[in-house]
Every structure is written in C-alpha cells, then in structure tokens.
C-alpha cells in the first residue's frame, strides 16, 4: 500500500513514441459524423424535438409555468405601472428624434411589447423605442421626406400629407428591419452573439448611454436642436447645444435639476433600504404626477415658455401595408438598424439574465424582435428595441417577468385611448431628466477601465476602442469597429507567443523554462523549444524567427553553405587540388585555394546533401579541407513541445514542414512531443509526412523523447554522468517513510539520465 | 548504465503541486521590461542602430553589395527591355481605364519606378500602373470631372481644359495616397501584413486576375466599354461586353487569339527547356514588334477599323502642386487606394520573395510606395502599385533585381522622349492579349480550392470568401471582407473545442480520451476534463456547457437544491416535525411532510452551504430526512487539463472562476494541471484566488494530481485494487534485459495506483 505522506511519483513503463504507443494500445474506431450527417440530424424531427422547438418558440410557456403569483405579481404590477408611465413619456420624447408626430411613439410602446410578451426570452427588458434607432429612422425619414423641398420620387407618396409620408417611410423601414431580424433568427445566426463579449457589451452600452445623455440634453435645457445622425453626429449635436446654451430655458433647467437630484437620492435610498422596503418607492411616477400638476396649475407653458408634451389624439389608426419602393431606397440603412436594435436589446438582456440567472436565446430574441417589428410596422409603430433607461426602470422597480412589460403596454393603451389629455401640460424636461438619472448604472461602467487595464490590457483596449468608436462613429459603425478590434485582439494574443527553451528539472521528468530555474539540466546537443500558442498564419513567421534565434543558426543558410562547400570539394577533387587519403583530405595544391565565384544555378543549394561520388561522408563540425568554412551546428536533436498548440492552419502547416525539412537536411533530428491527437490526424490527412519528415518523430511526452535522444546519443550526458554516478549511492530514499527535505534534495540534483540509471540497475 | 534496447521510462520523484514545486525549486527573479522600457529601448539610438536604420531605409545598398554582375546583369537587361516594352504598352492601356489621355500612363511607368529602385525591398515586382487602381482613379476623375455637364465646384479648376482638370484630380489623389502610405510606413503599421495569410493573398490575387481579365476583354474584342467601379462593377462590365459582342472587331479577335496562343506556347517551351535556353525567348517583345510592323504595313487602323495606340506627344511636362480642395473631396476614396495599392504590391512581392528566398519589409515597402507616389504625383503620374502581369513578365524573363525595373523605366523614357511615334500603329488588342496570357499563373491558383477543402475547411472558406468578395465587391471592400472572414476563422477554430474526458492508460502515467482506448482505467468519483484550446469570450459558455455535460450535473442547480433542502430541514427542526437522534434524523410528524412553497428571497441560494446551527453535517448522497430529494453528485474530484490553454481573457477568467466556485460549493475538489506559467502569474495578478478558489488546486502534471487524489480518496480504487494486487506479482519486469511484448502487456494492464504500489513497496 502507498503510505500516506509518502507523496512519491513513481512510474515505470515502456518508452513510447506515438508510433509504438499506437502499436501497443489499439485505438477504438469511432465513426465521426460528416457534415451531411450533422445536417440530417439537425433537421430530423420527432415528437420530443417538435415539442422542444414549440417551447423554445413560445418562451412564455416556460416562464408562465414557474410564475409565482404571490411573490411576483405585485412586483410586476408596480413595475408595469412605473415602466408604463416612463414608456409613455419616452415614447413621446423619442418620437421627436425620429421626426414624426409624437403620438406614434405611443404605438411603438404598445404593439411590439404585446408580441414580445409571447415570444421574448428576456424577462426584464422593456421593449419599445430606442433613441439611437429613432435617430437612425429620423435620418432616413428626413432624407426621403425633407423639411423643405419636395419628397423623394416614390410611388405611393401621392395624395399623402408630409406627416403621412414620413410615417409611411418609418413603417416600411421598420417592416424591412423586422424581416431581416426574423430571417437571421430562422437561419440561427444568433450564435454570433457569442462574439459580443462582456467587455464589448460594456463598452458599447456605455457609449450608448452617452448617446442617450446627449440626445436628452436638449429637453433638459429646453432647446430646439435638429436630429443629426451619422459619424461624429454627437460632436455636431454638442456643438449646436453649447452654441445655444445662452438661450436655454431656466425653468426647464430648474425642473430637471430638481427631478434629477430627488430621483437620484430616492433611488439611492431605495437601494440602501432594499430589505426594509416592501417595494421600491416609484419616485419617477410620483415626480411626474407632481410636476404635471404644478405645470397645469401655474400654466408653465405660457408663463415660462416651457416645452410641454401637448395635444395627443385619441385612439389607434387603421393598419397599413409597407411600401416596396421604400424597401429599395432604404435597404442599406435597414440592415445596421436590424443589427443595432438586436445588439442593444440582446446586450441589455444579457446583463439582466446574468444578474437574475436565467437563459436567453439569441435566435429566439431575433425571431421575437423580427415578428414584433413586422407586426408593429403594420400598425404604424416604428423599430422596437429596448431603451436602456426604461429597462432599468422596469428592473429596478421590481419587474420579475414580461407581465410587467404587458402591464406597461396596457398603461400606454389607456393613455392612448383615454387619459392622454392629462399629459398635455407635462414639461418635456421631466422626461429628459428621468431618462438621464436612469443612465447612472450604464455610465458607471466607465469604472471598468482601470480594472481592465490592470488585469488584461487587450481587453481594456477592446473596451476603449468599442466605446470610443461607438461614441464617435455612431452605434452601427462603432459596433462593427468594436467587433473588428475584438477579433484582432484574439489574434494579437497569439501573434507574439512567448516561446521558450526548456530544460530538465534535475531528478525529475519535468521540464521548465531554463531561464527560470537554477537547478536545471540541459543535455549537450539537445534543445527543447516550447510553443505556447496555436500556430497559424499570423505567427508562423514569428515562430520560425524565434526558433532560429533559439537554436543559434539558420538551417537554410547552413544547408546552402554546406552544399556550396560540397560543390567546391567535388571541384577540387576533380581538379586534383585535393585528395582523399586514409588520414582524411589532403590539400595537394601549393598556395591557399581561392574561393571561386559560383556561376551555377543556385536552386539546387536547397536540396538535401548528397555524398554520393565522394569517398567519405564529411563531418561538418570538424575542420574542412582547403580552409572551407561552414557554420557549426552544435545540436543533434531538437524537441518541439506542442502541448499548447491547439490548432494549425495551412500556412502554419507549410511553414512548419519547411522548417522541419531544413533542420533534417542539416542533420538535426526533430522530435515533436505532446501533440494533440486531432492535430496528428490532420497532419496525416494533409500529406504532411514524406520520406524526410516522418511520423516517427512524434513522441508522447517530452521525457519520452528525451530518454530516446539520450539513449541514441550517450555522449550527450557523459560529462554529467561522471559527477552524478557518485551521488546515485545516496539517492535510494529512506525506507522508513516519506523521502523528506534533505534526502529528497539530493535526489533532485541528479540528472534525468541517472534517474533512469538508478531504476534500471535497481530492477533489472 | 542504461541498456540499449531497454527503452524503459522510469521515474521516481516527489509528488508536486505547483505550490510544493515552487517551494522546493527556487525561481530566478527575472526583470520583465515594462511597456515604457520597451518604448525607450525602441527609440534608443546608437551608431549601429542608426546604420541599420539607414540600410533598411535604402535597401538598394544591401542588394547592390551582393550584385553579381557577370550572372545577373544580362538577365536584368533582357528582363528590363521586355518589361519596359510591356510597361509602355500597359501604361497606354491602363491610362484609358483612368479616363485620362494615354501618355500620362507612360509617366506613371517611369517616375515611381525610379524612386522604388532606391527604396523598395522587392527585387522582382514591376512598379507602375495597376489596372484596378486605374479604375478607382477613373471613378474619382469622372465623378469630379464628368464626361458631360460642368465639373465639380473646385478652386483651381478655373482656366483648365477638361483633360487638365482630370490630370489635376488624378495627381492630387495620387499625392494623398502617397502621404497615407508614407504615414503608415513611418508608424510601422506594416506589421499588419502578417494578417495577409498565404490563403488570403491567393484568393485575393486570383480575384484581381479576374478583374484584370475582364478589364482587358474590351481591348481583345475591340469594343468600347465605359470604365465602371464600385461593388458589382465586374457584373455590369460583363453585361455591357456581352451585349456588345456582335459588334466586336474580328481583326482584333484574330490578332488577340494568335498572340495568346503563340505567347502561351512559347512560354510553355521556355519553361520546359529552361535549363537549355541561355535566356527565355522574349516572345512578347517579338510579337509586339511583328504585329506593330504588320499593322503599319497593312494599315490595320483604316482597313479593319482596329483601335490603335495613336499619337503620343514627345517629352515630359513641368511639375505641378496637388490641389488641397481635391484632398477634401476625394479623401475617403484615397484610403482604400492606398491600402489596395500596397496590398496588391506586397502580396505579389511576397510570392516572389518566397520563390527567390529573400526578405521583404512591409514598412519599408509602404515608405517606398509612399515616396514614389508623392514624387510621381508632382510629375503628373498616377497611383503606382504593381501590375501582376507586368511583374510576371519581369520575373519570368529573368529579372534578378530592380536594375531590371530601372532599365524598364529607361525604355519607357526613350519611348516618351524619342520613339513614341513608332507605337502609333500598334493595335490595343495586342496589349490586352499579352496582359491576359500573363495572368495564367494567378488564375491557376483556382486549383488550390480542392486542395484546401480536403486539408483544412476553414482555410478553404477564407480563400473562397476573399476571392468571391473581391470579385463582386471590388478589391477594396473584398480585401476588408476577406480580412474579416480570416479573423473570424481564427476565432471559429477555437470556438467549439473538442473537449474530452480523459482516462488513465493502465500501468502508465499517460492519459488519453476515454472513448479512444479499451484498456483504460477511470478511478471512481474522479473526472478528468481536457480543454484543447485557449479560453476566451467566444468559447467560455461552450466550455461551461460541455463541462456540465461531462460531469453529469449542473453545480449551480445542485447548490440551490441543497440550500433549499437545508432551509427546509431547519424549518422542520424548528417546528419539531424533525428531530436529530444518534441514529440520524427522525421524522416525528405523522403524515408525509408537504413541501412548502418558498417565499423568501432566493438570492442566498447561491451562497456556500452553511451547516452551523445544525446538529450534524448532511451527507448529500445518502437518503435525506422527510423525503427531501437533491440530485446526487457522483464525483468528489475534477481535474481540468489546461495543457493546451494558451491564453485566458477577462470573460474566460470570470466564467472559469464562477464555475470553480460553484463546483467547490457542491464539495467537488477541482484540480487544474499543466497550467502555463504565464497564465498562473496572470491569475495571481487578476485576484483570481480567494478563500474558496485557492492556488493549491494547481498541480504540475495530470498524474501528480491523480496520485494526490487517489491518496486522499483511497476508496476510489479499492474495487480495482483487489483485482490488481494479484497481478502486481508479475509486473516486476524481466531482469535480463528489455521488457518485451508479453511481459510488458501484463505490466500495462495494472492500474495507475498499483504502479505506485509496486515501486513504493520495492523501495521503502
């Protein structure tokens, strides 16, 4: 029995190369599915799969089953009412960004929400208008139906007022966006959301928060600023706002500041006394009601010139088909809207799903938003995504499921159908202020920058790059730029791998960076080179350079020099200036032999060295006849540690093969160890091996390869062996128990080779 | 001494965790350079560095020193003359694509070449006009100075003829492109060329060849086709050409076919009899001269309506400053031109540098092209890159260095200054035919598709994607798309890693996929999970899912169930329905205990399990009191093999930590083995460890961790031990020599544990 506390690592087994291991241990043949079989399996249908598919298409079934009425319903009602009021206010506010009459924003806060209730997988996002999308719609709308001058030449515009034309444009674009999202969802392209890493999402949502902040500034300051979109629009908007600051409305600023301060403080209190309060105080709703009342009582609009919401017509309008001509005109603009709308919603949903620990499904979200937008567009609502601030309201007021969303839609419906007139006197600055104060959480993500910088610089660069690009270029281009930076960061992490030369930790089968430890052992003539990353197009050149640096010579150069030398020796032998005697080459010419300029084709210098028609093989490291000098090659074996090479691409394969061949041609034996099974299979499949590069160079572990090398080149260790033999007498550990400190240290100082020696002699 | 042929792997050493190894083997402190030190070193200047910098800025010094006059000069002269003639013809042809008067193409084939001679690192590319760039210039030119209607409102256009305005536009764009290239070169952004993998370059150059082929069709067919650029331009051009085919010129077609056939055959012969011919037959030149003579003699232009080169004015024009207003107008278009120009030249240069084995430097190439374009623009030449076909001529006619390029420029100069009139009767179809026949090599790259598909599917997708995108979208957008596909392919290779469960190969310290081998041993209660790729944002979720699948339970779910059960037991104990006796829990209530709906906050379900205020710790795998059921956890230890994990990003770090914590909270001990030193350092630096996740879970090798686990949980092996103990008697290998086949097989069938046992008992 093994003694507790002995803690010894003792192994005796045959030495294995990949070949000998495969010979001894039969591998089970496993049938690998082909691409077609995967496809067939994917499209196979049975009852269970069909049921699952239905369940995943209607996530409401899943969460309705676990709905805890007692605990959740009250929270959902409170949240739904608060969110509904915010949704009403935001609907009105954002609609102005889209250059449309305000009440269409109420439609956008109703129709898509109802559909999402059934199809969406996120329980906390508040579906509806999103300011950046509204800005994007606004740019299409004003392009096709400008404020001044005639509208674009589009069939279907005849007989419509300017506002009707604009609504037609907005709805058609929304319809197109919905179709794109639905298509992506059905094609299961949602897996691409894996690329939206936490870092990217954090940078992107921070930038989005800044965009929203800027878009609300004009309401808070009581200014009129035209909607601008496209790259650098945020700068232009800020320039306009700062230019107009002297004309800002003091009453609006006061209202906004009061609301921001009060809401902020009450929210902090809500957070602090979370456990003691039965439900968070719905401060936004309270403030809205109060300010609305005061505004009505003191007639803010007339007395202080405050911009208020104004008249809202009652009821819904009849549905309307989209315009195909507008599809053509605005197709290019609909795609980024589909992506940004989904990306924003998904990234917000992801934040909440992690916080509340449930699973959201990218494909189902795409389908949900696609259907929501298609359905909504028919009823004159425009592109729905989620507003970060409104989702924050829904979640922070205690919303547990989309029941809150549905209730918020009901509130919006009530406002549309009945009590819209009550909102007439509400100052727009109130809306702006509430939106801004809800951005706090998103804006606080800036605090991640120093955290990321200390921990992982590439991630920090991705965050900053995404955020800055999204702020400056707009969210669509910014997202693309962020994705690009993120993908490049992955490549960069492996582009400059820290290759190292390993050496044996004396007395063990372990190998570590030789620069890191003192008590290590490097057999002469052997180099162990560790590649700590996958090999592919971006780092194969780097790897080759590092390898040349590590072994101290360029194999191709050495090969060429040797072939040149050989050519010269042949020439001299032919001329008789050189003769072969039993003692070696004899220089028979009188003076020193002049190096003749080579006039031949240089192509065959890269071929393997060929000693035929020469009387003897030449020892390249000995002195050569006729003062010919070739660079010395000090190593006979090179071990490449492939343990961390997780994949190879074609460029790497070619580069690796070239390198191996060059090394083999200058008589360096190359061993590849700890290579992944699949990579080895791939090498066989790619005709990597030929009569020079052979599969017998593959060994199971580094130590196996080293033992093989030492057996083949006993001279490598002879120097060490002399010293170590004496020590072997003390290396038999204390038989009483664990080998402890002092004795063990002695054992540790023996070389690999002697470890083998001890056990060989002890047993056989 | 070790016996040759014994080939045994015998090791005895202490068992190491990372901690105990670090204790025993002191690490050398190595000062790592900070970013600032790297910067300082980079900008440090001494005599040697200054000299090297000068040499790299003037590559001509390097290759002039090794210039072998006897061998190379003749080849260079032949190549220079041939290339010069082709350059003259291409200059004239491509200039028409740029919508400029023909002779400006001759300037473009002269000025940039002279500068590149001094600054360029490629010895084989022929600098000068490139048809796709010419098309791109043409689109700017015709946008700002259209065929019909007034030119754009640009200061500096006053008093110029339409052709002069166009030349001004072309030169200004060229100047801007040059500045962009020079800036990129000085900022050392050339390292980005590493991203142009062989596969990408191959696909891209194939697409470029197809673009050129199409651009030459109209000359070969004798048609007039307007220059089109932008996405899908190739389709539009082909549609126009096919529409016009009935009106093509039979004489042009005959000339072209004859030239294509003759040149093709002679080039094949050149290739075949390469070794026998002193110099390849300059068939292009011969054919040009012959056809030019025939055309003059029989007056092709008048008799057959063949389109000929026509009048070329003599001499150069005075230099001209660029127009700043045009910089603003065409800035967005100059950038892709700078990139495409460089990318094409670099990719062609790379092909030849690999073929002829010398090094080209991306940054220096950028500087060379930047200066060439800035200088050229002043003398009314337009953007220079390289034409694939012309470079092919230069290389295949034997050009060894840029001396050939300089000579070609001299030929162009001679034509400009003196003998231009001789080219008057040359049919343009001759130019087109020669260009087309030289595309053969580039087009033959299509043959790589099946090769790549068989060997590496992602690479094949990159090739096809780049090629198709470059053909359809144009070379600028196509290159961007190709780069995107390539980057995504890198991420995709690691996004769905083939995680596997390992098991011990009996009698060894080796672990392999348990599905692959029959004779393997898995101790009970231990799972070994191998992660075969780096962990980062794109695969951390995948990894967690695979891990949950492999261990058979979701640790978070189990933790929550256990905490819920605990909460219920506490409640029952309080109520008195359950009592603790020496025999265990005793259910004292009469009926079965009803599961009460949980009304508390669910947040603390994720906390570690806390047994305080309970009389006993609960064994979760035993039957629980009161019919409470929690999922069974069958494993006590999990080993994660990190050997192939080459990096971790922040997302992966967070995900990994969450997973580890969840596992630890359900009493599964996690061991991470073979972790890279730098990753371990990073984990320390990122505060990965706390009082739950501890560094003592890291072990040096898989076998170390397994031995530790088996020591700690002897019950894991007891079942096996019974069988194996009997066998241990035969496992002492044959003392006479090598352990061969039959005996060894016996040894191999013992378990890990018994291997340790044999040696423990043998020695201590």
In total, the number of strands of chain A is 12
Q: Low-confidence parts of chain A, pLDDT < 50 over ≥5 residues?
A: 1-5, 595-601, 720-764
How many individual helices of chain A?
31
End-to-end span of chain A in angstroms? 23 Å
- The proportion of residues in beta strands of chain A is 5-15%
Average pLDDT over all residues of chain A? 81
Chain oligomer state: homodimer
Cα-atom radius of gyration of chain A: 38 Å
Which structural category fits the helices and strands of chain A? alpha/beta
Pair with the biggest interface:
A-B, 123 and 123 residues
Helix proportion range of chain A:
55-70%
Largest β-sheet summary of chain A: 7 strands, mixed
Give the overall form of chain A. elongated
Could you characterize what this model shows?
The structure is a homodimer of 764-residue chains. Chain A is α/β, with parallel strands linked by helices and 764 residues long. In chain A, the strands form 3 sheets. In chain A, strands 4, 5, 6, 7, 10, 11 and 12 form a 7-stranded mixed sheet that branches. A two-stranded antiparallel sheet of chain A has the order 2-3. In chain A, strands 8-9 form a two-stranded antiparallel sheet. The longest helix of chain A is centred in the middle third of the chain and has 33 residues, at 324-356. Chain A starts with 7 loop residues before the first strand and ends with a helix. Residues 1-5, 595-601 and 720-764 of chain A have low confidence and may be disordered. Chains A and B meet through strand 1, helix 10, helix 21, helix 23 and helix 26 of A and strand 1, helix 10, helix 21, helix 23 and helix 26 of B.
